[in-house]
Amino acid sequence: MPSYTPPTEDHLFILHEVLKVQDNQEIEGYADLTPDLTGPVLEEAGKLGAEVLAPLNTVGDGGCTLENGIVRTPEGFKAAFDMLRDGGWTSLACDPDFGGQGLPGILHAAAGEYHSSANMAFMMFSGLTLGAYRTIHAYGTEEQKATYLEKMATCQWTGTMNLTEPHCGTDLGMLRTKAVPQGDGSYKLSGQKIFISSGEHDMAENIVHLVLARTPDAPAGVKGISLFIAPKFLPKEDGTPGARNALSCGKLEEKMGIHGNPTCVMNYDEATGWLLGEENRGLAAMFTMMNHARLDVAGQGLFQAAAAYQVAATYAKDRLQGRAVTGVVAPEKAADPLIVHPDVRRLLLDQKSFVEGARAALLIAAELNDASHRHADAAKRKEADDMLSLLTPVLKGFCTDKGFDMTVQAQQVFGGHGYIREWGMEQFVRDARIAMIYEGANGVQALDLVGRKLAANGGKTLMGFFEAIKGFNKANAGDEELAKDFLDPLKAASKDMQEAAMYFMAEGMKNPNNALSGSSDFLHLFGHVLLGWAWARMAVAARAGLASGEGNAEFYRNKLRTGRYYMSRMLPETGLRLARIRTGAAPVMDLPAEAF
Description:
Elements: H1 8-18, H2 35-60, E1 65-67, E2 70-72, H3 77-86, H4 105-118, H5 120-139, H6 142-153, E3 157-162, E4 178-181, E5 186-197, E6 206-213, E7 226-231, E8 233-235, E9 241-244, E10 247-252, E11 263-275, H7 282-318, H8 342-374, H9 378-413, H10 425-433, H11 442-453, H12 460-475, H13 480-507, H14 512-516, H15 519-548, H16 553-570, H17 573-582, H18 586-589
Helix pairs in contact: 1-8, 1-15, 2-3, 2-4, 4-5, 4-7, 4-8, 5-6, 5-7, 7-8, 7-9, 7-10, 8-9, 8-15, 8-16, 9-10, 9-11, 9-12, 9-15, 11-15, 12-13, 13-15, 13-16, 13-17, 15-16, 15-17
């Protein structure tokens, strides 16, 4: 069974030496994020992940069961969920007025890695609940907030999102679920929703479903979609669960991975629901939850890669196979450990450099998310929100594509043992695969990025990203070694990205397929530039740490070694992606459909 070690030192380095959160006086709550607070919080979060959740990951792979309309979760899940809830981990960043502790989201994001890396399927129950909480917080009436939010912050009640139907996935304009007004402020919901994670389970006393549906006179397409709250049990006047609502789980999907979380077919048979937000504006409201979920899923890609990498690195140092080509390393043993072989080291460094770079990038995104809500300056809140909107499809697509690739490379380190269930590596691969598909398949993320996000605000936000990198390079230009290893590669990669964007502007107007055919390549190009920037920022902090003579010198040196690997071996992929983009639509679109 794989074990898990929380990367606390890495998180503290990013928080306090790269981002310097404790010095930020403009984002509410950041001045309180000193190592005296973050260190103990992350240490306790890590204990729960390593000691409780990680041992249940293999147990959860046995799956959930559906019995008489009730989903039974794997043995040990409910007790662990009680520990997660009672420890306050679900409410860490929630509003104190509605059951939360009010801490900045960046601390919740760091602690959340330990829990999701340890057990991805388990953490989906609370992750979806937080997204539903935020949607009700943003769009709910005062009565709805009072009814649901405190119980959802603590996961006494959990939440779901109900979008997809059997005949429509991404194209939500085709959905058919009906919502008929009853004259008392409620609606009767009828229809079927599929792929509903945590749609039914036995770990909370109530489940609050957010359901997209159409009212009788709604316009066609996405302009006629409304959002409704439909709880499993209808709340009584005293706030406790009352009568069972007319909704049920009709089936559990048999699937490739995340077996510990039930993926439900949900049937609504004139279930009682209440409008959330404005009628026919439901999709806009649901995007609050969807964008939260997309960043969560970006994390899932990283977290599975991080967990798999840890196990692979340990195995490579222990497993004896062959001899080093440059001479015997362990003469007292029958063979040398796998770690001596260059190609094994390549596999591991691909993983390590991605994991550490993506970890920093996701915490940069968490800082933007906090700034969008907590910054003292309204203009800065808007600027941060716009930048986060630009980066969301990049993080979701890139981190899940590469995260899956890295779990496969971790599996490869094990050779044949990686294919055998008892070693646990194939579960990482199976669990990571879904992250590329749900919350908007990665091809859709790429289309959103190129088709909408690049031109948002007249391209101002994209130019702001380029200016941030340019300003960073200029501020650190006097350091020749830093320039050679980090700044020059970052500058070259940023130039590739700018040229790709200019190609889209010039050719996309002539034929939109010229841009859309290169959208996935651009998403990956952007992802590499983002991680390259994260690595350059970590390099500056690591060099400062070494120069200070304080801290863990070997940690700083290894950080720089890993960063140099990413900049020299991974980042040059931007040139390949640019070359593909410049080929335009012809190679993709010329083949007739009947020839496939």
